[in-house]
Each structure stands twice: as structure tokens, then as C-alpha cells.
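Sequence in, structure out. Go.
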Amino acid sequence: MSVEIETVTGSEETAATDELVAAFGKLLPQLSSSAVPLDREALAAVVSCAANTLLIARVDGRIVGTLTLVTAPVPSGLRALIEDVIVDGDARGHGVGKALVEQALRVAKAAGARTVDLTSRPSREAANRLYVRVGFQRRESNVYRFAFE
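Output:
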């Protein structure tokens, strides 16, 4: 299985193709049952945001995975964060996630980031093993969330 990684680019008007909207319609529920489905406008906003680099993985021309790399300058340096890594259930175990993460690391390094962070639920055992295999180290840290009702 050959995995090809692409960076989704384009203006807000051209970035969210029918193919991309359909792919997210299939992939996003595999990450979160509470995530709101993305329409063309919402997906275009993600792609056109200057802080985001949206990567997609293709196998045999079909989109089977995605990852969003978020980079932002802060006083302590360029912050890089991997978000929403999703690999279609049918494509798991074939190197798709690894290819996405490794490409995100290359992009972050080229942008000048010194580190890349990510979070992953403990229940996502395969994903957590992947991150360790790629070289991520578990940090002792507290993650806090404030939810708007």
C-alpha cells in the first residue's frame, strides 16, 4: 500500500472541494462522535487559516487520512501542535498515520518550530504507540479545558 501525502491549499473559495468535504464526512465521525460535520464553508475556513497546514493521505487516489498542523508565533518561539489525526478504519495499520505525522514534523521543522506537541486520549492505544515510535515523548503535564455551554 503506497501512501501519498498532500498539503491542501487554496483560497477559501477553492480549497474545500466536493471530494474533501465528502472525505471529512466519513473521517471526522471516526475521531469524535460529538464533532459537528463540516460543510464546505467550515472546511474552507480551516484550510485558509494561516496558522493551519492541512495534510491529507491518499491510497490508490482515495483520501484515507488527515492531520492538521497548527503553528503560531508566541513570545517563547514558534509553537507547533498536531491536531485531529484521523485515519480511516479500513486503512489503519498500513503506515498512513506515520506518513502523516512524519510529514507534519518536516513542515514544522522547516517553519522553525523547535518542538511539536500533541495530545491523545489513552483509549487510542494504537495512536499512542505510533507517536512513541515516531519519537514523541510523553510529558508530565496537566491539560485543562474550559467548555462554553
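Check: The CA atoms of residues 120 and 149 lie 23 Å apart. The beta strands are 3-8, 52-59, 62-74, 77-87, 117-118.
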